[in-house]
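Final report, Chapter 2: Outcomes

The project's central promise was a pipeline that accepts a single protein chain and returns its three-dimensional structure in a standardized token representation, suitable for archiving and comparison. That pipeline is now operational. To close this chapter, we reproduce one record exactly as it appears in the project archive, with the input sequence first and the structure output second.
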Amino acid sequence: MQQLIEQAWEQRELLERREVREAVLATVEQLDRGQLRVAEPDGDGHWRVNEWVKKAILLYFPLQGMQTLEAGPMEYRDKIPLKRGLEARGVRVVPPAVARYGSYLAPGTVMMPSYVNIGAYVDSGTMVDTWATVGSCAQVGKEVHLSGGVGLGGVLEPVQANPVIIEDHCFIGSRCIVVEGVHVEREAVLGAGTVLTASTKIVDVTGPEPVVYMGRVPARSVVIPGTLPKRFPAGEYGVPCALIIGQRKESTDKKTSLNEALRLF
């Protein structure tokens, strides 16, 4: 499949061939089942991006015609079907939440009224809370809480761009924005309103000297919004940053343990 998709990416006329179309459709089907991922851990603390899978998603769009979709009284018109078979998959999706075909929801996932886009991967036991958005190709680990209004950016183009990655057991506070391939490592906590882009300075202020990260939140870090002074021709102003103010500890774990109770009851 990879070879056919790579060829079709360079020569779009090959989409007229049946075996190429079948390769594209099979790739998206495997994404929907969780058998393929846009990005996956390599076991050494790093993640590998499967660019050819992203190419397959982009090639999938021109193969699909517009259609009217109905979910009870609600009507949609789109090229991508809605995800189906939720009961068999062991997931809970609360109206009017939407997960597109080609996204993966692992057993135990809960979607409050929220949105998961094609190519995204949401692992077991994760709560996608009200009005949260999991953008295309974003990777979300096990037992994560995406609080109300969280926005995880999507990334289909350019195909070499890294997706947003939220590792296992993270707590992402209300109205946080994580975009441009930022990688949040396991068990980190982002305080409400934290905005992380590829160029956002993430400053560890817990030691005698600041330590600056960009594009990555270290494991178990507790992060809140902050500002850094910057001089412009018109004067000095505060520009947004994020501050690592400590490491997750038992008291923090207790605050976030309510999520487990919500899932069980």
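Archive annotation: The helical segments are 2-10, 18-33, 51-63, 86-89, 250-256, 258-264.
This record, like all others produced under the grant, will remain available to the consortium after the project formally closes.
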